[in-house]
Design a protein that fits this description.
Elements (H helix, E strand, L loop, with lengths): L2 H5 L10 E6 L7 H15 L3 E6 L3 H13 L4 E6 L1 H11 L5 E6 L5 H6 L6 H10 L1 E11 L8 E3 L2 E5 H11 L6 H12 L5 E7 L2 E7 L1 E5 L3 E2 L3 E2 L11 E6 L4 H13 L8 E6 L1 E5 L4 E4 L2 E5 L2 E14 L2
Parallel strand pairs: 1-2, 1-3, 3-4
Antiparallel strand pairs: 5-6, 5-18, 7-10, 7-16, 8-9, 8-15, 10-13, 11-12, 13-14, 15-18, 16-17
Helix pairs in contact: 2-6, 3-4, 7-8
Organism: Streptomonospora arabica
EC number: 2.7.1.107
Keywords: ATP-binding, Kinase, Lipid biosynthesis, Lipid metabolism, Magnesium, Metal-binding, Nucleotide-binding, Phospholipid biosynthesis, Phospholipid metabolism, Transferase
Length: 313
Amino acid sequence: MNSGAAAAASGAGAAPGAVTLLVNPAAGGSTGERVAARAARRLLGRGVEVDVVAGRDAAETRERARACVSAGAGVLAVAGGDGMVHLALQELAGSSTALAVLPTGTGNDFARVLGIPSANPDAAADVLIGGVRRSIDLGRCSPPEDADRPLWFGTVLTSGFDSLVVERTDRMRWPRGRMRYAAAVMAELGRLRPLPFTVEADGHEEHLEAVLVAVGNTAFYGGGMRICPHADPGDGRLAVTAVGPATSGQLLRAFPRIYRGTHTTHPLVRTFHARRVRLHTPGMRAYADGEPAGALPLHAEAVPGAVEVLVPR
């Protein structure tokens, strides 16, 4: 877990002796099921009580998560990627049930923030045994016409070029994994254009031309890109990164820097913090944790200590 989030931790109690494993067999083939079964065997071998819960689709999986929280589950462990984590956060936010992640997705950005190893299922499962419980912030967003139904996000809310890339990625069936995202990026670069954004940050409104605006609760999105390297999920603020009217060549050359988080020194990039952000540009949608968040305009805010998570010691 990053140092800022660790510093904002509310407590460091040991993981409880009972765990609920949430699996969505429809997501990511059978990988989530295999990892969950392996983790269950490992936990049972260590004397931990395990309850494996599966949903046939995203809607049923969310219902199962809601039931686990309502029943007072101590820990809900999600076997999946950022989409599964996003689904679980909608039910876990504001509850006393802690989230644990067994990463099996393509990007695993939320797991990366928590310091959960994605390449070692046994080490990830061991966090459920010997990890510590932390409290971190979440982002919460809603369109103005539906403010009573907010959407929670753990990583990044983004719009502009990134929205178009996500939409294209979802339409593609080949290639698989990270290469599909990279292919979508290359395709959208050929159509790159700046957009007239209105960004209101803590009541201060500004109009700017940008190819993308990202609002981060945490730093990572897109499988390890540090789009908001100044984000800290323990400071009660959102980190905003706006990329100005770059050409496709400029944006392409900047991608290696985005993975390192050094793009923020580029003259076309602006970064700042805000507790509340309103984002708008005509005819554009936003995505949060890589999932649809709705059409702009959207309001987003940081909610301090909104969820408890299990992280390595």
